[in-house]
Design a protein that fits this description.
Layout: H1 17-30, H2 57-61, E1 63-65, E2 72-78, E3 92-100, E4 106-116, H3 124-129, E5 138-143, E6 170-180, H4 190-209, H5 213-226, H6 247-270, H7 274-287, H8 292-304, H9 308-321, H10 326-368, H11 375-401
Antiparallel strand pairs: 1-2, 2-5, 3-4, 3-6, 5-6
Length: 402
């Protein structure tokens, strides 16, 4: 992630460390306020959005500008015990938080909320700050819309007015209640595995609806980590022999997993990752050969890979499985038109090739009439052009006859 440099720096052209020290000293002598410097040692001029800390050393230590550009700022409100641990990526943490707009309106509030660090299960800015906190710590986090809900904002389903408007700045007060690194013993039960898998899937669906396909793909893959590990092969061993799962539990997890693979394929299609999407739908079709969603998405993939005829065959099969599906009928009609256009373009291409071969043969014949040219060479060239013409004609005739 790129860190923006401060646009207020008045000494960007200084590269000598000694010159920078001299300027610092001069600024300190001219003003009672201490000068502030960015990470490169350049002076930062205060503006309307920047109020340099003037409190005690302990107060400045409690505030952290995470990226150095004021877009994500963390300030400790309550210190954690000295021996408290920090979470790392993948840890399960329990947090309580409240999110507010600049006018003080509460837009988010959770008590004892469980998330895995780094899995985007909370707003991005909070997810980045959690590894910087300790258990028992309370912090205030101010974040730019870039690390909140962006230009899209947030609104509930079936509501026109957003809860959080586009480009809104947010302030969170968050407390880290608990932190745990899960091991195999924590992931043995059906309830836990399905709970985590479904939670990741729902969060991935949220990102998909926001058109944030890369985040959706990451969350779908995380969901697959918890929903069975047989990659859609019903004949494979489960691989974790001492899991406390019955056959019905395994079947339920497998069905959930196939749903996730279908959704993953759709997100991969959206970013034109056709090879990866093809692998995802094949996991589904291996277990459910007549899964209409997987067949339809495979048809979309083949179309993206320029296999129009293959896409038509798959969508025809979907049409027999779902004869009332108007979307499939419309896509089939579009593909038939596309196939005819491609066939017409191929015919034109072969005709041009034949025409060029004939022109070359005519040029060769005209050159044979010139007395200064070696007739033996011209005859050899004529034979060569004739061979090319016969070959091209043969390919064209075979292509359109068979």
């Amino acid at each position: 992630m790129d860190v923006e440099k401060s646009s207020n720096s008045s000494f960007e052209d200084l590269t000598n460390a000694e010159d920078t020290k001299d300027i610092r000293a001069a600024q300190s002598a001219k003003s009672e306020k201490p000068a502030t410097f960015d990470s490169a040692g350049a002076s930062v001029a205060p503006d309307s959005d920047y109020d340099p800390p003037t409190g005690s050393d302990s107060e400045s230590e409690n505030e952290c500008d995470v990226l150095g550009n004021k877009q994500l700022v963390k300030r400790i409100i309550k210190q954690a015990p000295p021996d408290a641990r920090r979470p790392v990526r993948g840890d399960l943490v329990k947090i309580t938080f409240t999110g507010k707009l600049d006018d003080g309106t509460i837009v988010e509030q959770e008590q004892g909320f469980e998330v895995h660090v780094g899995d985007f299960e909370v707003v991005h800015g909070l997810d980045m700050v959690l590894p910087m906190m300790k258990v028992g710590e309370v912090a205030k986090v101010q974040l730019d819309s870039r690390f909140g809900y962006g230009s899209t904002g947030l609104k509930k389903d079936n509501e026109s007015e957003p809860i959080i408007g586009p480009d809104a700045h947010l302030t969170y007060e968050v407390e880290l209640l608990d932190c745990k690194t899960e091991d195999f013993a924590d992931l043995k039960t059906f309830e836990i595995l399905r709970k985590y898998g479904i939670r990741k899937k729902e969060r991935a669906n949220y990102f998909y609806k926001r058109l944030e396909y890369n985040n959706a793909i990451n969350l779908y893959r995380r969901a697959l980590d918890f929903l069975d590990d047989r990659d859609g092969d019903p004949d494979a061993e489960f691989g974790k022999e001492d899991l406390e799962l019955s056959n019905s539990d395994l079947q339920t997890l497998l069905e959930d997993r196939l749903i996730v693979y279908n959704n993953l394929a759709m997100a991969q299609i959206k970013i034109d990752a056709y090879d990866a999407a093809l692998q995802s739908v094949e996991h589904v079709l291996r277990c459910q050969p007549n899964n209409s969603k997987a067949l339809y998405r495979k048809g979309r993939i083949l179309e993206g890979k320029a296999d129009t005829q293959g896409a038509i065959k798959l969508l025809q099969k979907v049409a027999t499985l779902e004869p009332e599906n108007r979307t499939v009928q419309q896509d089939l009609a579009r593909l038939f038109i596309k196939a005819r256009r491609e066939e017409h373009n191929e015919k034109e291409m072969y005709q041009k090739m034949l025409g060029q071969a004939k022109k070359m043969e005519q040029k060769t014949a005209s050159r044979q009439k010139q007395p200064l040219v070696d007739n033996s060479k011209l005859k050899l060239l004529g034979y060569l052009m004739g061979s090319i013409l016969v070959g091209v004609a043969g390919v064209a005739i075979y292509r359109y006859k068979y």
